[in-house]
Design goal:
Strand 1, helix 2 and strand 2 form a beta-alpha-beta unit. 49% of the residues are buried. The protein has a single domain, classed as TIM Barrel, CATH 3.20.20.70. The protein is globular. By secondary structure, it is of the alpha/beta class. The chain contains ten helices and eight strands. 42% of the residues lie in helices and 17% in strands. Bound molecules: indole-3-glycerol phosphate. The site of indole-3-glycerol phosphate has 20 residues, from strand 8 and helix 9.
């Protein structure tokens, strides 16, 4: 099993904590903090894995990913529009353990090729889906993280999140054979997070709410408390 999958599946609190400099509307999310400071905050709160957005419209970059992977020993997911094999080699060189593949943006033959190529490169495919049809197009689902995106990448993650999408698609994720169904985007507080974990998600990907939080450890502790 990949390092990313096993870290998530063995975590006492499976929150993939994300670093991105801006939200899709351009609002700053780092508030003057360095990437290293955010990494340390997330590690103190118990993150088993991290995510770094390298896409430029979120203010990300390859340098940001490098800075994070140098700082942490935790497996790191690269979030970007990965469509070509060369990008997989770059992700690995920058220290990523997992890569985002967006099912809704890739023709199914390309998605299949990229999943296979990522696995061959030792990277965990983190496949984002929004429909049952997209889920059905994911090969080797048992080796992938399958993540329902509660927002819509086609409108650049603007707009409000639809958390019912996660609930509706969870059975299809499990039927596809993933060990690691994840809910991503728009998880605004600990109550929502605890609810999704209670439904059966094996992991959650959270960015904005944690980046805006003044106390990430308290945020995570609240999820722990609600799950008891
Ligand atoms: O900040 P949020 O709402 O917690 O969402 C995190 C993550 O899911 C979101 O940043 C994201 C989802 N899909 C993406 C694709 C590219 C870049 C970023 C993303």
């Amino acid at each position: 099993m990949s390092g990313f999958l096993s870290a998530l599946l063995s975590a006492e609190l499976p929150l993939i904590m994300e670093i991105k400099p801006r939200d899709p509307d351009g609002t700053d999310l780092l508030g003057g903090r360095s990437a290293a400071e955010v990494v340390d905050t997330y590690e103190r709160a118990g993150a088993p894995c991290l995510s770094v957005v390298t896409g430029h419209w979120f203010g990300g970059s390859a340098d940001l990913l490098r800075e994070v992977t140098r700082r942490t020993g935790k497996p790191v997911l690269q979030k970007d529009f990965i469509t070509r094999r060369e990008q997989l080699a770059t992700a690995r060189d920058l220290g990523a353990s997992a890569v985002l593949l967006t099912a809704g943006l890739l023709p199914s033959a390309v998605l299949a090729r990229m999943v296979t190529a990522a696995l061959a490169a030792g990277l965990t495919p983190f496949v984002e889906v929004t429909t049952e049809r997209e889920i059905a197009a994911v090969p080797h689902a048992g080796e992938c993280v399958l993540a329902v995106n509660n927002k819509d990448i086609k409108v650049r993650e603007r707009g409000t999140a639809d958390l019912t999408r996660s609930a509706v698609l969870l059975p299809a994720l499990l039927a596809a054979g993933t060990r690691c169904p994840v809910s991503a985007s728009g998880i605004r507080d600990a109550t929502v997070a605890a609810g999704l974990l209670g439904q059966g998600f094996a992991g959650l990907l959270i960015g904005t709410s944690l980046l805006r939080s003044t106390d990430v450890t308290a945020w995570a502790d609240e999820v722990r408390r609600l799950r008891r």
